[in-house]
Design a protein that fits this description.
The chain is an alpha+beta fold. The protein contains one helix and three strands. Helix content is about 25%, strand content about 25%. The chain is globular and about 30 Å long.
Amino acid sequence: MKIKSYKDLEKVEDNMIVDLSELEPKLMIRAIDFLTGLTCKNGSLMKVERHKFLVRFGR
C-alpha cells in the first residue's frame, strides 16, 4: 500500500507492506514512529527495501 499522507496510515492492516516513498522526510519519520507503535506488542516492523516496510501486529 502506498502511503501518500499521514491519514493513510489508518488503513494499514496486519501483514501489509507499506511504501513511504511519497512522504517528505519529516513525515516519513513520524509514519515509521506510528507503525512502530502498532507493532509494540509482539509485532514487527521489517524493512523490505528502500522506503518499504512489512508491518505485522503480532496478535
